[in-house]
Amino acid sequence: MHILRGKFLLTLCSILLGFLSYAQDEEVSFQMNLSKEKLGINERLRVEFTMNKDGDNFSPPPFEGFKVVMGPSQSISSSWINGKRSFSKTYSYILVPTARGRFNIKQATIEIEGEVYKTLPKSVEVTAAVDKPNDQKTVDDVADESLHLVAEVSKGNPYLNEAVTVIYKLYVSPSISVTNYRPLDNPRYNNFWSQEIPVTKHTAQNGTYQGKPYRFVVLKRVVLYPQKPGKLEIEPLSLEIFVDVPTNRRDFFGGRIYTQTSKNVSAGRRTINVKPLPESGKPANFGGAVGDFTFSVNASKAQLNASESLQARVEVSGKGNLKLFQLPEPELPSALEVYDPEFEESVRTYSSGMEGKVANKYTIVPSFRGKYPIPSISFSYFNPKTRKYVTLNSEEINIEVLEGPTRSSDDTNLSGTPNKQVVVQAGKQFHFIKLRPNLTNIGTDYFFGSKTFYWLLFAPLLLIPLTIFSFKKREAIAGDVEGNKIKQANKLAKKYLSTAKKELGNKEAFYVALEKGLHNYLKAKLKIETSEFSKEKITTILTEKGVGEEDVEGFIALLKSCEMARYSPFSNVQMQNDYDKASEVISNLDKNL
């Protein structure tokens, strides 16, 4: 009995200790650690700020009485031991004193899970110089001082839909060598339309960083088009760099011995202030085009016959956000039959932004003879260099149909020319009527009462059941509203995703076509301006339209896949899954919209 009671007490203590240790593991810790509290003026001081949970908005103290020679460098460690996660994140600084005396290193702050945490201040005494400083640089110190990842932003105050280029450069001191690197965290460009420019070759170039000679390599180029005004944040790019660092040791032959280490580097967050497009002078037909463009409307032929076809091409070319606005539509006479336009795109993205041309090609078939004018249409855009709106007008095009039927006098003539009445020549209004017709005897085989007579008499009665069955069948199909919606939605999905389906297997072209198909669907269904294409705006509008949460999340997930595909490897299976998912999402959205 005493043995059982002892085992029960031992088990209870173990459980309580487990709960206490778990509670302690969950408690937030944010501390400042100093390599020493007393040092000579010719020594170095390492200051580390360590936390056991990831946080944001880290703010270091001012370090009065010291000069920062390195930092902040960031290191992260995460592991699982016995089913429990261990996490540690450290910001490190290397300081050198600027004077003798006692200095107070004040509090650092960080925000973790919505709460602000502060370190305790610590005091440091700086004495006269010592003979043998015992704080020689470590391998990690050398790596920290010799590696810098920098994000260069071309414009800090662009207009809405104006191109912004971000170039990520890795600066490396000549004293070390980089062997490899891997991305830790790729930035998500929220509220931007982004296009990565592939860096095919990493070529080292000579340059300077903070006044010192360095070599640098361009690791990544991204062109961004901001999709809403205000302060927008560009997330940092984080990399793990593997480097060879020289040591003070030498081998048997006198050569310097190198040791390998890895360091985490990050290009700091950047905030740009996006200016809205001015309201003053904005044309009524402005569709969101920003850049410098030319505009033209051309027809493949000016003369043709009825039932022949011609192509009218509406084209915008130049430099700017070519993929992010709608082309103007021509106004054509009703006597001309016009088919849905075919969209053509020839756009390349350079470091300065998109360049090329986009066009809509309309197939037109006239039905009647006559002359038909295609009125002039206008295209407006905003030029960020001149800070003014520009409106371009096309020339009027006249189409002449040479041969074909003439429109009747009851029809409204929209070609601008009056309809001509058909004139009958005098003297031919009445023709001669024969007074003695040549009639022949049909014989004794009368039609009435014959087999053919009865067959033709009862055949319509036999067709009545077939007609009723056919009518019921058509009525059932017409009454199947849900089925008709599904059929129509599937046709719509195939229409907008046809280009993406052709590019299956070609990752970049497939995801560009997929993203464009999704955007074009929203433009057609919701009449959303291109400048409103942020994920938050799309989510809000679809929710207001009564679209289910699952379908909204599926649509946003597809847009994120299109963004991720620009810098991540995607398999053919994943592309096929994204295509099938896009068809399903468009079908579901169309049933709701």
Automatic annotation (TrEMBL):
Mind listing the UniProt keywords for this protein, alphabetically?
Membrane, Signal, Transmembrane, Transmembrane helix
- Stretch forming the signal peptide: 1-23
Bilayer-crossing residues are 453-471
UniProt keyword Thylakoid present: no
Cited InterPro entries: BatD
| Top-level taxon of the source organism | Bacteria
Which Pfam families would you find in this protein's record? Answer: BatD
- Under which name does UniProt file this protein? Protein BatD
